[in-house]
Automatic annotation (TrEMBL):
Residues 135-273 form the Amidase domain. Gene3D superfamilies: Amidase signature (AS) domain. GO terms for molecular function: glutaminyl-tRNA synthase (glutamine-hydrolyzing) activity. This is Amidase domain-containing protein. Pfam families: Amidase (PF01425). It comes from the Eukaryota. InterPro entries: Amidase, Amidase_dom, AS_sf.
Length: 274
């Protein structure tokens, strides 16, 4: 993970790349081991350089927080681990997922109160047909557009996809089928999670135009549960902290403070009621 330096352009990339290969050769091998062939050399260099300048010093500094006086770690890891050692097979019974059921929920008179209801309360409104997923989606999209630029917590609003999924959720519910507590509920995803046809930027200027046309597993699960994707949210540059190529994500209750990360966008957005 590394911060976005923004200092490497196509003109000086080759020069820095050659220098970095000599100074930090292990990194390229690491990318090869991870099968990260979708990175070009400039992007590899960007990550490599910032890891060296930013992450490694932080890790070395943090070691002092966990080190003992004699230089060892308080909880040292074993050098060798074999899962078969002293193991006993146990039969695990997978219980069906249960969640509390809300009853007697009434629709508030204003959208502001609706925005701050819990997922279970919103689900009860949907089941009771006191609100539609399409209405709910419009409420949250309006809040995203209003507050997102102030808090710098949203990277991409997926409006077209959101209304499509909301209408489908309403149609399924109209047929008497309820998919569970996320059915018809608007949600956001950290922008490290791939969604086809939309950028997956990882919060980094180097990848702000990147589109990964595969569905991440977590997105597939949310779709199958009937959730409605309304936005891709900030996760900080390469999923670190709250600084990204569009600014720095703020605390909605005090915009002089910042959200920190890597879930900066989701934290700020949830707290702000969108």
């Amino acid at each position: 993970i590394a911060q976005d330096s923004g200092k490497l352009g196509p003109k000086n990339c080759g020069e820095h790349l050659e220098q970095a290969k000599n100074e930090f050769p292990v990194c390229k091998c690491g990318f090869d081991m991870l099968d990260a062939g979708f990175f070009n050399d400039c992007k590899k260099l960007e990550i490599q350089k910032d890891a060296k300048d930013f992450n490694i010093p932080i890790i070395r500094s943090n070691r002092k927080l966990v080190a003992t006086e004699n230089g060892g770690l308080r909880d040292p890891c074993p050098l060798v681990f074999n899962s078969a050692w002293k193991s006993q097979e146990t039969k695990q019974v997978t219980d069906k997922f249960n969640y509390p059921v809300c009853s007697g929920i009434q629709r508030p008179k204003n959208d502001e109160d609706i925005a701050f209801m819990s997922v279970l309360e919103l689900g009860q409104l949907l089941k009771a047909k006191l609100i539609t997923s399409e209405e709910l989606t419009r409420i949250f999209l309006n809040r995203l557009k209003r507050y997102g630029p102030v808090l710098e917590s949203v990277i991409t609003i997926t409006e077209e996809l959101a209304f499509q999924q909301a209408i489908e959720a309403d149609q399924v519910l109209a047929k008497g089928k309820y998919l569970g507590p996320l059915h018809g509920i608007p949600c956001g995803l950290k922008d490290i999670i791939a969604v086809p046809d939309y950028p997956t930027t990882w919060g980094s200027k180097s990848f702000k135009d990147q589109v990964i046309d595969v569905e991440a597993w977590v997105y597939k699960r949310l779709k199958s549960a009937g959730a409605v994707l309304v936005a891709k949210l900030v996760s900080g540059s390469l999923a670190y902290d709250d600084i990204w190529f569009g600014g720095r994500t703020r605390n909605p209750w005090n915009i002089e403070e910042f959200s920190t990360g890597s879930s900066a966008g989701p934290a700020s957005s949830t707290s702000a009621g969108y």
